[in-house]
Amino acid sequence: MTTDPPVLGLVAGDGLYPEYIVRGARRRTPELRIVAVGFKGETNPAVIPLCDVYKEFSVGQLSKPFSFLKKNGVQNVIMAGGINPKNILSLRPDLRALSVLMRMPEKNADSLLGAVITEAEKEGFTILPAFTYMEEHMPQPGHIAGPRPTPEQWEDAVFGMQMAKEITRLHIGQSVIVHHGTVVAVEAIEGTNNCIRRGGELGNGKPATLAKVARLGHDMRFDIPTIGPVTIQTCAECGIRQIALEAGKTILLERDRVEQLCKKHKISLHALQLPEQDGPSPSDRPA
């Protein structure tokens, strides 16, 4: 007697992240059947041939994607990849999504995605952590690439992480650009790369630090902080010479390429634990 293969649902946004999820899932469970939902003008086309079933919808639809996943036997779902902020602001919701929006007092990215998960759970779906199959890509505390930070850079890294954590409390963003103890730019809906560009412009090319963290009480089922080669290249172009990530809560994509770029552009990249966890490890602090 044969049994049906296990099924995984994937809600795929832009970037490399969804592709990493699929490849990681295939390595761990080769017989896994992957059913993916994509979004017009958003989903990375590279992920489509890697899935067993794929269908595209408009940003703002809920009813049709839910029906599609149910029809294909999906119960467990992973949400991976981002959506262009302009599309979030101009989305055309279906009746179900409109009903959800009308009940929401705040409409930031955190509350929107949380509301989508609530609706999915009502349909019987289980939303898995967004780091499922990605544990090996989440750096632990310590130096990752590029030159070791100077004591001055270390101070900016710790300061930047604290400031970034504070803006997450206000549901503004996850990243800040700092220079010598001054916050130069704060990420909002424009995204990390545009925040980096603005920070570089305001800093007049002075070497600065990018600090990127997860939100306070972050729901790890969605919107986990992610960086990759594009982030490093943008930093290089804008005068960012240090990147501090929150250890254990950030996805690092294409690590080999990231290490090459950090070495080439002399960008210090390291992961820190915040004081709310256990505090930065003394062994990581520059002498």
UniProtKB/TrEMBL annotation:
Domain of life assignment: Bacteria
| Domain LpxI N-terminal, residue spans | 8-136
Q: Where is the LpxI C-terminal domain?
A: 141-269
Q: Which Gene3D superfamilies match?
A: 3.40.140.80, 3.40.50.20
Which Pfam family would be a valid example here? LpxI_C
Matching InterPro entries: LpxI, LpxI_C, LpxI_C_sf, LpxI_N
PANTHER family attached here?
BLL4848 PROTEIN (PTHR39962), LPXI FAMILY PROTEIN (PTHR39962:SF1)
Q: Protein name, please?
A: DUF1009 domain-containing protein
